[in-house]
Structures are given as C-alpha cells and as structure tokens.
Amino acid sequence: MSQLQELYQEIVLEHTRRPRNFRRLEKPDYTAKGYNPFCGDNFILDLKIERGIITDVGFQGAGCAISTSSASMMTESMKGKTLEEAKGLFNAFHQMLTREPGTEADAEELGDLGVLSGVSEFPTRVKCATLAWHTMMAALKGERESVSTE
Ligand code: ZN
User: 128 C-alpha to center of ligand 1: Å?
Assistant: First the structure.
C-alpha cells in the first residue's frame, strides 16, 4: 500500500473511531432518516438552518466504517454552508463516487472527503459512502420519510 493510501485509511479510521457531530440536535429544523439495506447502515440526521445557512448538523445511528466516516466528514464540511453550497458539495461528492472507472476525481473542493474517492471502484460501498448525503438532501427538502438506497 502506498503512503498516500495509508494516510487515507488513517483519516477514515479516525472518523470511524471518533465520528464528529455524533449527536441529536435540540429542536432541529429538519430531520431525516437514511437506511442502506445492502449493508445495514442506519442513520438519523438533524439540521439547523438560519437565514439559508446550515448552522448545525448532527447524526446518530450505526453503520460501517465507510458510511460512518463519510457522514462524519460530511457534517464537518456542511456547517456554515448556504443551501446552494450544500447542494454543490453533494453534487461534487456524488460525481466523485459515480465517475467513469479510471478517470480522476475532481476532488479539490471536497477537502478530506477526497479520501473516499477510491470507493467509486466498489459500487456496493458507494451506497455506504453516499447514504448520509442522500439523507441530508432529503432533510433539506423537508422529506420526513426514511431514505433508502434501494
Ligand atoms: Zn456500509
């Protein structure tokens, strides 16, 4: 394994061991649930929004290393973003994971989230990595129904 891959794995493991924003919010403006039946990842996501800006994000639940670290990194990167920026970030992340095999990801604006770029080679794990993101988008639309990756 290359040093870069080792570093990437370190970041993923670190977020899995100590997920950021792993808590329910008090009086969230939006809440959504996400479930990935292929893996059993199960999250609930809370959002606070003030004047079109995401001021707080929290998630709880249980999932594999990929889904948990992706959710953790997502909550960190979403705080302080406008709804437009949040959508842009979702699109960039989604594009990175669903790009043509063998092509480079344009992950510059994604920061640490770029460590999940290699997940694109494993379609079943893409569902793990994007679960919290789809849940986030559902929450923003005010959809209270559970999101499923199926
Ligand atoms: Zn998973």
Answer: 4
Q: Which residues contact 147 (CB under 8 A, 6 or more apart)?
A: 32, 33, 34, 35, 131, 134, 135, 138
CA of 64 to the centre of ligand 1 (A): 4
CA distance 84 to 21: 22
Q: What is the pLDDT of residues 60-108, one digit of tens each?
A: 999 999 999 999 999 999 999 999 999 999 999 999 999 987 888 777 7
Residue with tokens 């994971």: 97
Tell me the CATH number for domain 3-148: 3.90.1010.10
What is this structure's pTM?
Answer: 0.91
For residue 35, report the distance from its CA to the centre of ligand 1, in Å: 10
